[in-house]
Amino acid sequence: MTAIKRIFSPALLTLALFGGAAHAALVPPQGYYEGIEKMKTGDGNFRCAPAPKPFTGALQFRSKYEGSDKARATLNAASEKAFRTSTEDITGLEKGVSKMVGQYMRDGRPAQLDCALTWLGTWARADALLSTDFNHTGKSMRKWALGSMSGSWLRLKFSNSQPLAAHQAEAELIEKWFARLAEQTVRDWSGLPLAKINNHSYWAAWSVMATAVATDRRDLFDWAVKEYKVGVNQVDEQGFLPNEIKRRQRALAYHNYALPPLAMIASFAQANGVDLRAENNFALQRLGEGVLAGARDPSHFKERAGEQQDLTDLKVDSKYAWLEPWCALYHCVGDTLQRKQHMQPFNSFRLGGDVTRVYDPKK
C-alpha cells in the first residue's frame, strides 16, 4: 500500500493545532504602554503594610438599599454601615493595589511593586473571592474587585518599562487567579432576563474585558463584547436606559454610573479591531450626551423618572472618569472638552487608577 504523504503549510499546521484561525494577542489601548515616569532609588518613605486578610468566606453581604422598594434608591444607613464593615478587606485590597500601582508608575520604587505583588499573591494563593455561596451584593463585590485589580494590573503588564519581567512566576499565579475570577463572573452574570440587565452587568463585563486582555483570553473578550451590545441596545432614542430610569430619584446618577464600564469596554474593543462606537445608532455617544445635558439641567430626567433627581454624585468630578475613554472614542470638543479638562485628572480605582494618565497623558 502506498503511503500517503501529508504536507502541512504553516497556516494549515496552525489550524491543525488550534482548531481555527489564530487571533492576534489581545492588547489594551495605547496609553497602557506608558513607562514609569521617573525611576527612583531606595524606598523613600514607602512602607509596605500587611495585606488585608484574604476573603475566602461566603459572599453574602447586606445591601445598602436594604428595605427599599423596587426602585432600590433609598439608602439604609444601618445596612450600609454593615456592608462597609463586612467588605472592608475587599475594598482595602482594591484601593491599596490601585494606589501602589499608581505610585510605582510615577516613582518606580521597587518596594511599591513588591508590595502590590505581595498583596495580590497572598489573595491568589488563598483562592480568595471564589466562593459559590453568594447573594447579589456578594457577586457584585466579586466583579467590582476583579475590575479594579485587572485594571491596575494592565498598567504593569503592558508598560514599556516591563516591571513584571523579573516576577514571571508571581505574575502567572496572579493572572491564573484573575482568570478563575473572570470565569466565575461570567457564570454569575450570564443569562439574565433583559429586565434585570443594568449597570451591574456592565461593570461585570468591564471586569471580564480587563481580565481578558490581561490574560489574553479571547473567549472572555467575546463575552464582554456580547454583554456590551446587550447594554447599549437598551439605550432608547432619547438616550435613556429603561432599567436605570427605574431608580427614580437616582436615575440620572445611575445613568452616569453605567457609563464608565461601557466606555472602557468600547475603548478596549477598538484597540483590538472591534469598533463598537456605532452600535444601536451611536447609543454610547447618545447616552453620554444625555448624561452631560442632565447634569446641566436634570428636568428631562425628572420628567422621565417621575421624581426630582438626587444630584449628589453628579457633583463629584471622579464620577465622570468615563469622559477619558468616551472622548477618545468620539473626539470631544467645545463645552464637553472644557468640562473634561476642568475636572482632570480622573482617578478611579474601579477602573484601575489614573485614567487620565492612560488616555490623556499630557495632563
Describe the structure in brief.
The protein has 363 residues and is mostly helical. It has a single domain (25-359), classed as Glycosyltransferase. 56% of the residues lie in helices and 1% in strands.
Q: Any overview of this molecule?
A:
With 363 residues, this protein is mainly α. The protein has a single domain, classed as Alpha/alpha barrel (Glycosyltransferase), CATH 1.50.10. 56% of the residues lie in helices and 1% in strands. A two-stranded antiparallel sheet has the order 1-2. Strand 1 and strand 2 form a beta hairpin. Helix 3 (88-107) runs parallel beside helix 5, helix 8 (218-232) crosses helix 10 and helix 10 packs across helix 13. The chain is globular. The chain starts with 9 loop residues before the first helix and ends with a helix. The model is unreliable at 1-21 (pLDDT under 50).
CATH third-level topology: Glycosyltransferase
How many distinct folded domains? Answer: 1
Query: Average pLDDT value?
Result: 91
What does the main sheet amount to? 2 strands, antiparallel
- Multimer state: single chain
Poorly predicted runs of 5 or more residues: 1-21
Q: Structural class of the helix and strand makeup?
A: mainly alpha
Order of helices and strands: HHHHHHHHHHHHHHEEH
Q: What portion of residues is helical?
A: 55-70%
Question: CATH homologous superfamily name?
Answer: Chondroitin AC/alginate lyase
Quickly count the helices: 15
Termini Cα gap: 74 Å
Number of strands: 2
Shape: globular
| Main sheet: strand order | 1-2
Proper CATH architecture: Alpha/alpha barrel
**What's the gyration radius in Å?**
21 Å
